[in-house]
Amino acid sequence: LGFAVAVAIALVGALAMGMPPVTSVALAIALAPISGSIVLPLVWRVSLRDALRTVVVLEAALADVLAVLAMGMMARLITGGGLAGLLAVGSLVAALFSVGVAVGAGLLWPRVLRRFGEHRYLDALTLGLALILWGAAETLGASGALVVLVFGITLANEAALLAKIGLPEHGAAAVA
Fold first, then answer.
1. Over the stretch 113-129, which tens digit does the pLDDT of each residue have?
2. Assuming Cys at both sites, which of 29, 59, 123, 137 could form a disulfide with 144, CB separation 3.0 to 4.6 Å?
């Protein structure tokens, strides 16, 4: 919602300054996200409740991903891809694929990490997997940013997600 409101405000401002509509939309998409590179360091310096801090961090990360996806759609529209074809075949399928891969990897990765036990470099391995997921998704034409965002959200909420789908967190599948 915050991203959509920011796009609308920037779009109205750009149109009011006399910019062409296509340029106005592109500018609004570029200006709308609250950059995670600015928010993430600052959010820890401000006294916020943990729940609110989490929302602010997720909003910043999600807004960046939405901006990348929206700008990609905008570029495809400008270069001749029709909206119906774009949504039906391209971006929608790529986004669903990205989410599916990320959720699958996010639910399997903790099980792989448990086999390593307590080692010092597990965070680096997780970062490496996130970068591999990003590269693989981009190579396949999907959204690397969306894959990494959903992968991180899935990792952070693994226990709750497994409980919702009825799988044990530390079941026999994790040990086998």
1. 888 777 778 888 888 99
2. 137
Q: Name residue 34's amino acid.
A: I
pLDDT averaged over every residue in the chain: 78
Whole-angstrom distance, CA of residue 14 vs CA of residue 59: 24
pLDDT of residue 174: 40
How distant is the alpha carbon of residue 147 from its chain centre? 6
Looking at per-residue pLDDT, the higher value among 36 and 89 belongs to 36
Q: Tabulate helix, strand, coil % of the chain (nearest 5).
A: 80, 0, 20
Tell me 90's DSSP state: I
- Encode 47-68: b = buried (16+ Cβ within 10 Å), e = exposed: eeeeeeeeebeebbbbbbbbbb
Burial of 133 per CB tally in 10 Å (0-12, 13-18, 19+): buried
Closest CA to 77 of 98, 67, 93, 91: 91
C-alpha to C-alpha distance for 45 and 29, rounded to whole angstroms: 28
